[in-house]
Specification:
CATH topology: Globin-like
Radius of gyration: 14 Å
Distance between the termini: 30 Å
CATH architecture: Orthogonal Bundle
Number of helices: 8
Structural class: mainly alpha
Shape: globular
CATH class: Mainly Alpha
Number of domains: 1
Largest sheet: none
CATH superfamily: Globins
């Protein structure tokens, strides 16, 4: 598996390919939720924590839920995000936050060990890779600050 982080450039938005449907099918909704929530637990103690509402337990829990809702929907699952927040429009939703390339790479790197653990649980490498590839490219879209 090659969980490499592609160098992005502010304003450059490469085409995004959604994760293979086998990823969600294999992982299942509960394990998918744990993946996203575990990622947020790592964010909470990372150098990008300042981008998240870590000092308000309710707001942070809501941010976790929104991330799960979006990612499961984009992975072919229920449209939880649309139901709770409307159309994703993630670039606009992230515009108020100063997201630079270094922060993007930190955010993305926190997913690597969590996804590698899925392989040990029997999830096919190609499915994990497809989810990683989605995150890698999609996260480039959200970079809005030089540094």
């Amino acid at each position: 598996m090659k969980l490499t982080i592609t160098n992005g450039e502010i304003g450059v938005r490469p085409p995004v390919t959604k994760p293979h449907p086998g990823f969600l099918d294999s992982v299942g909704e509960e394990r998918f939720k744990k993946l996203v929530y575990d990622h947020y637990d790592l964010i909470e103690v990372s150098d990008v924590a300042f981008l998240f509402p870590i000092h308000d337990e309710d707001d942070f829990a809501e941010a976790k839920q929104h991330a799960f809702d979006f990612l499961i929907q984009i992975s072919g699952g229920p449209d939880y995000f649309n139901q709770s927040r409307g159309a994703p429009q993630m670039v606009g939703r992230h515009a108020p936050f100063r997201i630079d390339e270094a922060g993007r790479k930190t955010w993305l790197s926190l997913y690597a060990p969590l996804l590698e653990a899925l392989e040990d649980e029997g999830i096919k490498e190609e499915y994990i890779q497809s989810f990683w590839d989605y995150l890698d490219v999609f996260s480039m879209w959200l970079v809005n600050t030089k540094n």
